[in-house]
Amino acid sequence: MTNPLLPEHIYHIYNYANGNENLFREDENYGYFLQRYWEFIDPIAEIYAYCLMPNHFYLMVKIRREDEIFEYFKLSKNLTDVEDLSGLISKQFSNLFNAYSKEFNKKYSRRGSLFQRAMKRKEVTSDTYYTDLILYLQLNPVHHNFTNDPYSWKSSSIH
User: Fold this and answer.
1) Cα–Cα–Cα angle for 135, 40, 156, rounded to 5 degrees
2) Going by fewer Cβ within 10 Å, which terminus of the chain is more open, N or C?
């Protein structure tokens, strides 16, 4: 089983498109993904950095405090079981990916899974990883030869 997403922990979350497909075919796809992000993930996590690439994405988020999550979802404090809270957090990510995939499939008359099976996640456990990850995310469009200037890539948090 994958380690649970825990309140007040920072994570590097990422995923890729299935096969040779792209997650984002045009500018409006990036905007729609971010709209769904704000709808589903902002209530449970603060975003520190992100980069959306044609066939994959990276997020660096800090899961909000338990009491913030409880308050947003109007849950009672007796939901203290880590698995239950982690399940709620994971469900919000699932909701993001499902909402985006459904709209993408409808728009492009496609069927099936858009994302690889499960999102990947790594906990950010050191200051070095924290700073390296922010740099990695912002320079990813340059690394993949989409641009020579990271500031020209519209779909990242560098701005």
Assistant:
1) 25
2) N
Of the candidates 58, 70, 66, the one whose C-alpha atom is nearest the C-alpha of residue 134 is 58
- List, for residues 2-47, the tens digit of each pLDDT value: 688 999 999 999 999 998 899 999 999 999 999 999 999 999 999 9
Instruction: Compute the C-alpha angle 139/142/148, nearest 5°.
Output: 120
Report the alpha-carbon distance of residue 73 to residue 85 in Å, rounded.
Answer: 11
Side by side, the strands of the sheet bearing 56-63 are: 45-53, 56-63, 10-16, 120-123
Domains and CATH numbers, the chain: 10-152 (3.30.70.1290)
**Residue 20 has which token pair?**
């040779």
> Closest Cα partner for 7 from 72, 101, 52?
72
Q: How far apart are CA 156 and CA 121, in angstroms?
A: 19
CA 94 – CA 80 distance, rounded (Å): 21
